[in-house]
Specification:
Layout (H helix, E strand, L loop, with lengths): L2 H13 L1 H6 L2 H5 L6 H7 L5 E2 L6 E2 L2 E2 L3 H5 L6 H5 L8 H14 L12 E3 L1 H13 L5 E5 L5 H9 L3 E5 L11 H8 L5 E7 L11 H16 L3 E7 L15 H6 L6 E8 H4 L8 E5 L4 H16 L7 H12 L1 H26 L8 E3 L7 E6 L4 H12 L1 E2 L1 E2 L4 E5 L8 H16 L1
Parallel strand pairs: 1-13, 5-6, 5-7, 7-8, 8-9
Antiparallel strand pairs: 2-3, 4-10, 9-10, 11-12, 12-15, 14-15
The structure holds pyridoxal-5'-phosphate (PLP).
Pyridoxal-5'-phosphate binds next to helix 8.
Keywords: Aminotransferase, Pyridoxal phosphate, Transferase
Cofactor: pyridoxal 5'-phosphate
Protein name: Aminotransferase class I/II-fold pyridoxal phosphate-dependent enzyme
Length: 429
Protein backbone atom coordinates (compact mmCIF):
# COMPACT_ATOMS: atom_id res chain seq x y z
CA UNK A 1 0.00 0.00 0.00
CA UNK A 2 1.19 3.52 -0.78
CA UNK A 3 2.64 5.29 2.30
CA UNK A 4 0.23 8.20 1.80
CA UNK A 5 -2.73 5.80 1.88
CA UNK A 6 -1.25 4.12 4.97
CA UNK A 7 -0.98 7.48 6.75
CA UNK A 8 -4.57 8.38 5.87
CA UNK A 9 -5.75 4.99 7.13
CA UNK A 10 -3.75 5.27 10.36
CA UNK A 11 -5.26 8.69 10.98
CA UNK A 12 -8.72 7.32 10.24
CA UNK A 13 -8.08 4.37 12.53
CA UNK A 14 -7.36 6.79 15.37
CA UNK A 15 -10.19 9.15 14.47
CA UNK A 16 -13.00 6.97 13.21
CA UNK A 17 -12.16 3.22 13.01
CA UNK A 18 -15.72 2.34 11.98
CA UNK A 19 -15.43 4.47 8.87
CA UNK A 20 -12.20 2.71 7.91
CA UNK A 21 -13.90 -0.63 8.49
CA UNK A 22 -16.70 0.32 6.13
CA UNK A 23 -14.36 1.05 3.21
CA UNK A 24 -13.79 -1.18 0.21
CA UNK A 25 -10.26 -2.27 -0.68
CA UNK A 26 -10.22 0.53 -3.27
CA UNK A 27 -11.32 3.07 -0.67
CA UNK A 28 -8.52 1.92 1.63
CA UNK A 29 -5.90 1.95 -1.11
CA UNK A 30 -6.84 5.40 -2.44
CA UNK A 31 -4.90 8.59 -1.61
CA UNK A 32 -4.23 11.98 -3.17
CA UNK A 33 -0.71 11.94 -4.56
CA UNK A 34 1.83 14.64 -3.81
CA UNK A 35 2.34 15.04 -7.54
CA UNK A 36 2.00 17.77 -10.10
CA UNK A 37 -1.21 19.23 -8.67
CA UNK A 38 0.27 19.69 -5.19
CA UNK A 39 3.46 21.21 -6.63
CA UNK A 40 1.38 23.43 -8.92
CA UNK A 41 -0.61 24.70 -5.95
CA UNK A 42 2.63 25.60 -4.18
CA UNK A 43 3.83 27.51 -7.27
CA UNK A 44 0.59 29.46 -7.73
CA UNK A 45 2.01 32.73 -6.42
CA UNK A 46 5.25 32.60 -8.42
CA UNK A 47 5.98 35.11 -11.20
CA UNK A 48 7.06 32.32 -13.57
CA UNK A 49 4.85 29.31 -13.05
CA UNK A 50 6.23 26.54 -15.29
CA UNK A 51 4.44 23.71 -13.51
CA UNK A 52 1.05 23.36 -15.14
CA UNK A 53 -0.12 21.26 -18.06
CA UNK A 54 -1.93 24.16 -19.71
CA UNK A 55 -0.72 26.88 -22.06
CA UNK A 56 -0.76 30.49 -20.94
CA UNK A 57 0.41 33.93 -21.96
CA UNK A 58 0.51 37.31 -20.17
CA UNK A 59 -3.27 37.63 -20.47
CA UNK A 60 -4.02 34.24 -18.92
CA UNK A 61 -5.18 31.10 -20.72
CA UNK A 62 -4.28 30.57 -24.36
CA UNK A 63 -7.53 29.71 -26.09
CA UNK A 64 -9.29 29.94 -29.44
CA UNK A 65 -11.63 32.94 -29.70
CA UNK A 66 -13.87 30.92 -31.99
CA UNK A 67 -14.35 28.27 -29.30
CA UNK A 68 -15.08 30.93 -26.69
CA UNK A 69 -17.53 32.76 -28.97
CA UNK A 70 -19.59 29.71 -29.77
CA UNK A 71 -21.45 29.85 -26.47
CA UNK A 72 -23.66 32.45 -28.16
CA UNK A 73 -24.44 30.05 -30.99
CA UNK A 74 -25.89 27.06 -29.17
CA UNK A 75 -29.58 26.28 -29.04
CA UNK A 76 -31.23 25.26 -25.75
CA UNK A 77 -31.26 21.67 -27.03
CA UNK A 78 -27.50 21.80 -27.60
CA UNK A 79 -26.93 23.02 -24.07
CA UNK A 80 -29.51 21.43 -21.80
CA UNK A 81 -30.43 18.02 -23.21
CA UNK A 82 -28.73 14.83 -22.03
CA UNK A 83 -25.96 13.56 -24.27
CA UNK A 84 -26.05 9.79 -24.78
CA UNK A 85 -23.39 7.78 -22.87
CA UNK A 86 -21.30 7.45 -26.04
CA UNK A 87 -21.48 11.21 -26.70
CA UNK A 88 -23.26 13.29 -29.34
CA UNK A 89 -23.37 11.24 -32.53
CA UNK A 90 -22.54 14.22 -34.74
CA UNK A 91 -19.47 14.93 -32.63
CA UNK A 92 -18.33 11.31 -32.93
CA UNK A 93 -18.58 11.50 -36.73
CA UNK A 94 -16.73 14.81 -36.87
CA UNK A 95 -13.94 13.49 -34.64
CA UNK A 96 -13.68 10.36 -36.80
CA UNK A 97 -13.21 12.63 -39.80
CA UNK A 98 -10.49 14.52 -37.95
CA UNK A 99 -8.72 11.28 -36.91
CA UNK A 100 -8.68 10.11 -40.53
CA UNK A 101 -7.44 13.49 -41.81
CA UNK A 102 -4.63 13.51 -39.22
CA UNK A 103 -3.72 9.89 -39.96
CA UNK A 104 -3.61 9.36 -43.71
CA UNK A 105 -2.43 5.76 -43.28
CA UNK A 106 -5.64 4.85 -41.49
CA UNK A 107 -8.97 3.82 -43.09
CA UNK A 108 -12.37 4.22 -41.42
CA UNK A 109 -12.98 0.47 -41.72
CA UNK A 110 -9.97 -0.29 -39.49
CA UNK A 111 -11.25 1.55 -36.41
CA UNK A 112 -14.30 2.02 -34.22
CA UNK A 113 -16.23 5.28 -34.25
CA UNK A 114 -14.68 7.35 -31.45
CA UNK A 115 -16.69 7.28 -28.23
CA UNK A 116 -16.73 10.55 -26.31
CA UNK A 117 -15.20 10.40 -22.83
CA UNK A 118 -14.99 12.90 -20.01
CA UNK A 119 -11.53 13.74 -21.44
CA UNK A 120 -8.47 11.51 -21.53
CA UNK A 121 -8.25 10.54 -17.86
CA UNK A 122 -11.75 9.09 -18.04
CA UNK A 123 -10.81 7.19 -21.21
CA UNK A 124 -7.71 5.76 -19.55
CA UNK A 125 -9.79 4.72 -16.57
CA UNK A 126 -12.35 3.04 -18.87
CA UNK A 127 -9.49 1.06 -20.41
CA UNK A 128 -8.67 -0.10 -16.88
CA UNK A 129 -12.29 -1.10 -16.26
CA UNK A 130 -12.45 -3.11 -19.44
CA UNK A 131 -8.98 -4.69 -19.63
CA UNK A 132 -7.06 -4.58 -16.34
CA UNK A 133 -7.51 -7.23 -13.65
CA UNK A 134 -5.63 -7.09 -10.33
CA UNK A 135 -2.13 -8.45 -10.90
CA UNK A 136 -2.11 -7.78 -14.66
CA UNK A 137 1.09 -6.20 -15.92
CA UNK A 138 1.02 -2.58 -17.08
CA UNK A 139 4.21 -1.38 -18.76
CA UNK A 140 4.89 2.32 -18.28
CA UNK A 141 7.78 4.44 -19.52
CA UNK A 142 10.14 5.37 -16.67
CA UNK A 143 9.46 9.03 -17.50
CA UNK A 144 5.74 9.07 -17.18
CA UNK A 145 2.60 10.93 -16.20
CA UNK A 146 1.95 10.14 -12.53
CA UNK A 147 -1.77 9.54 -12.90
CA UNK A 148 -1.20 6.18 -14.65
CA UNK A 149 -0.01 4.86 -11.28
CA UNK A 150 -3.21 5.99 -9.59
CA UNK A 151 -5.47 4.66 -12.36
CA UNK A 152 -3.82 1.29 -13.02
CA UNK A 153 -1.70 0.71 -9.90
CA UNK A 154 -4.09 1.86 -7.18
CA UNK A 155 -7.56 1.68 -8.71
CA UNK A 156 -7.03 -1.47 -10.75
CA UNK A 157 -4.30 -3.11 -8.65
CA UNK A 158 -2.14 -3.82 -11.68
CA UNK A 159 1.48 -4.80 -11.41
CA UNK A 160 3.29 -1.70 -12.74
CA UNK A 161 6.56 -2.31 -14.54
CA UNK A 162 8.64 0.54 -15.96
CA UNK A 163 10.83 0.59 -19.06
CA UNK A 164 13.47 3.26 -19.70
CA UNK A 165 13.02 5.59 -22.68
CA UNK A 166 16.31 7.48 -22.22
CA UNK A 167 19.90 6.31 -22.01
CA UNK A 168 22.35 7.60 -19.37
CA UNK A 169 23.13 10.59 -21.58
CA UNK A 170 19.51 11.70 -21.81
CA UNK A 171 19.09 10.46 -25.38
CA UNK A 172 15.85 8.80 -26.35
CA UNK A 173 16.14 5.06 -26.90
CA UNK A 174 13.73 2.32 -27.93
CA UNK A 175 16.12 -0.34 -26.58
CA UNK A 176 14.61 -0.40 -23.07
CA UNK A 177 11.17 -1.16 -24.47
CA UNK A 178 12.47 -3.71 -26.97
CA UNK A 179 14.36 -5.55 -24.19
CA UNK A 180 11.37 -5.38 -21.85
CA UNK A 181 9.02 -6.79 -24.48
CA UNK A 182 11.44 -9.59 -25.36
CA UNK A 183 11.55 -10.58 -21.69
CA UNK A 184 7.76 -10.74 -21.22
CA UNK A 185 6.66 -14.03 -19.65
CA UNK A 186 2.97 -13.21 -19.12
CA UNK A 187 0.28 -14.10 -21.64
CA UNK A 188 -1.19 -10.59 -21.55
CA UNK A 189 0.27 -7.14 -21.03
CA UNK A 190 -1.01 -3.59 -21.16
CA UNK A 191 1.52 -1.26 -22.79
CA UNK A 192 1.21 2.50 -22.33
CA UNK A 193 2.64 4.64 -25.13
CA UNK A 194 2.49 8.41 -24.59
CA UNK A 195 4.00 10.70 -27.24
CA UNK A 196 4.57 13.65 -27.12
CA UNK A 197 5.66 12.37 -23.75
CA UNK A 198 4.72 13.97 -20.47
CA UNK A 199 7.07 14.95 -18.76
CA UNK A 200 9.90 15.02 -21.32
CA UNK A 201 8.31 16.34 -24.52
CA UNK A 202 9.73 13.61 -26.75
CA UNK A 203 8.05 12.12 -29.83
CA UNK A 204 9.76 9.26 -31.72
CA UNK A 205 10.92 9.52 -35.30
CA UNK A 206 9.55 7.36 -38.13
CA UNK A 207 12.36 4.82 -37.63
CA UNK A 208 11.88 4.71 -33.87
CA UNK A 209 8.16 4.10 -34.31
CA UNK A 210 8.96 1.25 -36.70
CA UNK A 211 11.25 -0.33 -34.08
CA UNK A 212 8.59 -0.04 -31.37
CA UNK A 213 5.87 -1.50 -33.57
CA UNK A 214 8.09 -4.38 -34.71
CA UNK A 215 8.89 -5.23 -31.09
CA UNK A 216 5.18 -5.24 -30.21
CA UNK A 217 4.46 -7.41 -33.24
CA UNK A 218 7.23 -9.87 -32.28
CA UNK A 219 5.71 -10.25 -28.83
CA UNK A 220 2.20 -10.68 -30.24
CA UNK A 221 3.51 -13.33 -32.65
CA UNK A 222 4.52 -15.33 -29.58
CA UNK A 223 0.78 -15.43 -28.76
CA UNK A 224 0.93 -12.77 -26.03
CA UNK A 225 -2.09 -10.45 -25.96
CA UNK A 226 -0.75 -6.90 -26.13
CA UNK A 227 -3.19 -4.14 -25.27
CA UNK A 228 -1.46 -1.00 -26.54
CA UNK A 229 -2.85 2.12 -24.93
CA UNK A 230 -1.85 5.17 -26.93
CA UNK A 231 -2.23 8.38 -24.93
CA UNK A 232 -2.24 11.14 -27.54
CA UNK A 233 -3.02 14.03 -25.18
CA UNK A 234 -0.43 16.30 -26.85
CA UNK A 235 -1.02 15.09 -30.40
CA UNK A 236 -0.19 17.67 -33.06
CA UNK A 237 2.33 19.70 -31.04
CA UNK A 238 5.28 18.57 -33.15
CA UNK A 239 8.20 20.93 -33.74
CA UNK A 240 10.72 18.69 -35.49
CA UNK A 241 10.87 15.89 -38.04
CA UNK A 242 9.06 13.19 -36.07
CA UNK A 243 6.37 10.59 -36.75
CA UNK A 244 3.39 12.93 -36.99
CA UNK A 245 0.62 10.35 -37.22
CA UNK A 246 -0.49 8.58 -34.08
CA UNK A 247 1.48 5.47 -33.16
CA UNK A 248 -2.02 3.97 -32.89
CA UNK A 249 -2.12 4.10 -36.70
CA UNK A 250 1.15 2.20 -37.06
CA UNK A 251 -0.05 -0.43 -34.57
CA UNK A 252 -3.44 -0.79 -36.23
CA UNK A 253 -1.77 -1.38 -39.58
CA UNK A 254 0.11 -4.38 -38.19
CA UNK A 255 -3.15 -6.34 -38.27
CA UNK A 256 -2.14 -8.82 -35.62
CA UNK A 257 -5.16 -10.22 -33.72
CA UNK A 258 -3.05 -10.38 -30.54
CA UNK A 259 -2.53 -6.60 -30.65
CA UNK A 260 -5.37 -4.37 -29.53
CA UNK A 261 -4.58 -0.73 -30.34
CA UNK A 262 -6.56 1.76 -28.25
CA UNK A 263 -6.30 5.49 -28.73
CA UNK A 264 -7.13 8.21 -26.20
CA UNK A 265 -7.16 11.73 -27.56
CA UNK A 266 -9.26 14.83 -27.23
CA UNK A 267 -9.91 18.52 -27.11
CA UNK A 268 -8.10 19.03 -23.79
CA UNK A 269 -4.69 20.01 -25.15
CA UNK A 270 -5.28 19.82 -28.92
CA UNK A 271 -7.99 22.49 -28.76
CA UNK A 272 -6.59 24.33 -25.71
CA UNK A 273 -9.82 23.43 -23.90
CA UNK A 274 -8.63 21.79 -20.68
CA UNK A 275 -11.79 22.40 -18.67
CA UNK A 276 -14.22 21.23 -21.35
CA UNK A 277 -13.57 17.58 -20.51
CA UNK A 278 -14.01 16.24 -24.03
CA UNK A 279 -11.92 13.24 -25.03
CA UNK A 280 -12.35 10.18 -27.23
CA UNK A 281 -11.59 6.48 -27.11
CA UNK A 282 -11.05 4.63 -30.37
CA UNK A 283 -10.17 0.98 -30.96
CA UNK A 284 -8.17 -0.45 -33.82
CA UNK A 285 -10.72 -3.12 -34.73
CA UNK A 286 -12.03 -3.91 -38.17
CA UNK A 287 -14.71 -6.56 -37.84
CA UNK A 288 -18.17 -5.13 -37.45
CA UNK A 289 -19.30 -7.50 -34.68
CA UNK A 290 -16.29 -6.72 -32.47
CA UNK A 291 -16.87 -3.02 -33.01
CA UNK A 292 -20.48 -3.29 -31.91
CA UNK A 293 -19.68 -5.39 -28.84
CA UNK A 294 -16.89 -3.11 -27.68
CA UNK A 295 -19.16 -0.09 -28.11
CA UNK A 296 -21.95 -1.75 -26.09
CA UNK A 297 -19.55 -2.58 -23.27
CA UNK A 298 -18.03 0.91 -23.26
CA UNK A 299 -21.49 2.45 -23.12
CA UNK A 300 -22.28 0.21 -20.16
CA UNK A 301 -19.10 1.26 -18.37
CA UNK A 302 -19.90 4.95 -18.93
CA UNK A 303 -23.56 4.55 -18.02
CA UNK A 304 -22.63 2.86 -14.76
CA UNK A 305 -20.11 5.52 -13.83
CA UNK A 306 -20.71 9.14 -14.89
CA UNK A 307 -23.77 8.18 -16.99
CA UNK A 308 -22.95 10.61 -19.80
CA UNK A 309 -20.79 13.60 -20.64
CA UNK A 310 -21.60 17.29 -20.59
CA UNK A 311 -23.76 18.35 -23.55
CA UNK A 312 -22.58 22.00 -23.69
CA UNK A 313 -18.99 20.82 -23.96
CA UNK A 314 -19.81 18.25 -26.66
CA UNK A 315 -21.82 20.88 -28.57
CA UNK A 316 -19.02 23.43 -28.33
CA UNK A 317 -16.43 21.06 -29.78
CA UNK A 318 -18.91 19.99 -32.43
CA UNK A 319 -19.47 23.63 -33.35
CA UNK A 320 -15.81 24.39 -34.02
CA UNK A 321 -15.34 21.15 -35.93
CA UNK A 322 -18.26 22.15 -38.13
CA UNK A 323 -16.93 25.70 -38.52
CA UNK A 324 -13.23 25.09 -38.86
CA UNK A 325 -12.04 28.02 -40.92
CA UNK A 326 -11.26 30.60 -38.26
CA UNK A 327 -10.95 27.98 -35.52
CA UNK A 328 -8.08 26.19 -37.24
CA UNK A 329 -6.28 29.52 -37.59
CA UNK A 330 -6.79 30.26 -33.88
CA UNK A 331 -5.35 26.89 -32.93
CA UNK A 332 -2.44 27.23 -35.35
CA UNK A 333 -1.58 30.63 -33.80
CA UNK A 334 -1.36 28.99 -30.40
CA UNK A 335 0.76 26.13 -31.73
CA UNK A 336 3.08 28.66 -33.42
CA UNK A 337 3.45 30.45 -30.08
CA UNK A 338 4.42 27.19 -28.37
CA UNK A 339 6.81 26.30 -31.18
CA UNK A 340 8.59 29.66 -30.88
CA UNK A 341 8.98 29.03 -27.13
CA UNK A 342 10.28 25.54 -27.84
CA UNK A 343 13.09 26.91 -30.03
CA UNK A 344 14.18 29.45 -27.40
CA UNK A 345 14.07 26.73 -24.72
CA UNK A 346 16.23 24.52 -26.88
CA UNK A 347 18.81 27.29 -27.37
CA UNK A 348 18.97 27.90 -23.63
CA UNK A 349 19.19 24.39 -22.21
CA UNK A 350 21.97 23.16 -24.49
CA UNK A 351 24.31 26.08 -23.72
CA UNK A 352 27.81 24.84 -22.94
CA UNK A 353 27.91 26.86 -19.70
CA UNK A 354 25.02 24.88 -18.24
CA UNK A 355 26.24 21.37 -18.97
CA UNK A 356 27.90 21.04 -15.55
CA UNK A 357 24.55 21.90 -13.95
CA UNK A 358 22.10 19.73 -15.82
CA UNK A 359 21.57 17.24 -18.59
CA UNK A 360 18.53 17.80 -20.80
CA UNK A 361 16.47 14.82 -21.91
CA UNK A 362 15.87 14.83 -25.67
CA UNK A 363 12.74 16.80 -26.56
CA UNK A 364 11.06 17.86 -29.78
CA UNK A 365 7.32 18.34 -29.10
CA UNK A 366 4.52 19.04 -26.63
CA UNK A 367 4.38 21.35 -23.60
CA UNK A 368 7.35 20.26 -21.52
CA UNK A 369 11.01 19.46 -21.30
CA UNK A 370 12.88 17.75 -18.48
CA UNK A 371 16.35 18.14 -17.03
CA UNK A 372 18.44 15.84 -14.84
CA UNK A 373 20.07 18.20 -12.36
CA UNK A 374 23.59 17.43 -11.24
CA UNK A 375 24.79 17.09 -7.66
CA UNK A 376 21.69 18.39 -5.90
CA UNK A 377 18.24 17.18 -4.92
CA UNK A 378 15.45 18.11 -7.35
CA UNK A 379 12.85 18.73 -4.64
CA UNK A 380 15.26 21.01 -2.71
CA UNK A 381 15.83 22.93 -5.95
CA UNK A 382 12.09 23.23 -6.57
CA UNK A 383 11.50 24.83 -3.18
CA UNK A 384 14.60 27.04 -3.52
CA UNK A 385 13.38 28.35 -6.90
CA UNK A 386 9.99 29.29 -5.46
CA UNK A 387 11.50 30.97 -2.40
CA UNK A 388 14.43 32.79 -4.01
CA UNK A 389 13.38 33.42 -7.61
CA UNK A 390 9.59 33.12 -7.71
CA UNK A 391 9.84 30.32 -10.29
CA UNK A 392 7.63 27.24 -10.19
CA UNK A 393 8.85 24.00 -11.72
CA UNK A 394 7.98 20.36 -11.03
CA UNK A 395 10.32 17.93 -9.26
CA UNK A 396 9.71 14.53 -10.86
CA UNK A 397 11.93 12.50 -8.51
CA UNK A 398 15.28 13.05 -6.74
CA UNK A 399 17.16 14.03 -9.87
CA UNK A 400 14.75 15.28 -12.54
CA UNK A 401 12.74 18.45 -13.01
CA UNK A 402 10.06 19.31 -15.55
CA UNK A 403 9.66 22.76 -17.03
CA UNK A 404 6.42 23.66 -18.85
CA UNK A 405 7.48 26.10 -21.55
CA UNK A 406 3.79 26.13 -22.48
CA UNK A 407 3.31 28.51 -19.55
CA UNK A 408 6.29 30.85 -19.97
CA UNK A 409 6.33 33.75 -22.43
CA UNK A 410 9.03 33.40 -25.07
CA UNK A 411 10.84 36.54 -23.86
CA UNK A 412 10.89 35.27 -20.27
CA UNK A 413 12.34 31.85 -21.09
CA UNK A 414 16.03 32.93 -21.04
CA UNK A 415 15.53 34.55 -17.62
CA UNK A 416 13.81 31.47 -16.21
CA UNK A 417 16.63 29.13 -17.29
CA UNK A 418 19.31 31.57 -16.09
CA UNK A 419 17.66 31.55 -12.67
CA UNK A 420 17.27 27.78 -12.62
CA UNK A 421 21.01 27.57 -13.36
CA UNK A 422 21.69 30.11 -10.63
CA UNK A 423 19.53 28.12 -8.20
CA UNK A 424 21.46 24.92 -8.92
CA UNK A 425 24.74 26.75 -8.37
CA UNK A 426 23.48 28.18 -5.07
CA UNK A 427 22.76 24.65 -3.86
CA UNK A 428 25.90 23.06 -5.32
CA UNK A 429 27.97 25.54 -3.31
C1 LIG B 1 -0.03 12.34 -20.77
C2 LIG B 1 -1.34 12.86 -20.31
N1 LIG B 1 -2.43 12.10 -20.49
C3 LIG B 1 -3.63 12.51 -20.07
C4 LIG B 1 -3.79 13.73 -19.45
C5 LIG B 1 -5.14 14.11 -18.94
O1 LIG B 1 -5.90 14.71 -19.87
P1 LIG B 1 -7.41 15.14 -19.56
O2 LIG B 1 -7.32 16.47 -18.89
O3 LIG B 1 -8.00 15.20 -20.91
O4 LIG B 1 -8.02 14.12 -18.69
C6 LIG B 1 -2.69 14.56 -19.24
C7 LIG B 1 -2.86 15.83 -18.56
O5 LIG B 1 -2.00 16.48 -18.06
C8 LIG B 1 -1.42 14.10 -19.68
O6 LIG B 1 -0.34 14.83 -19.50
Amino acid sequence: MNPLALTLNEQLMAQNPNLLDMMSDLGKNMYYPKGILTQSAEAKATDYNATIGMATNRDGMMYADTLYDMFNHLSPEEVFAYAPPQGLEALRDLWLKKVLADNPDLQAAQITRPIVTNALTHGLSLVGDMFVNPGDTVLLPAHTWGNYNLIYGVRHQANIQKYPIFDENGHYTTQGLVDTLQAVKQDKIILILNYPNNPTGYTPTVDEVRTIVEAVDELAKRGVNVITVVDDAYFGLFYEDVYTQSIFTALTNVNNPHILPIRLDGATKEFFAWGFRVGFITFGLSDAASKEIVEAKMKGLIRSNNSNGSTPSHSAVRYVLENPEQFNKDIQDNIDTLEARYHVTKEMVYKEAYQSLWQPYDFNSGYFMALRVKGIDAETLRKHLIDQYSIGIVALNNTDIRIAFSCIEKDDIPYVFEKIAQGIQDLQN
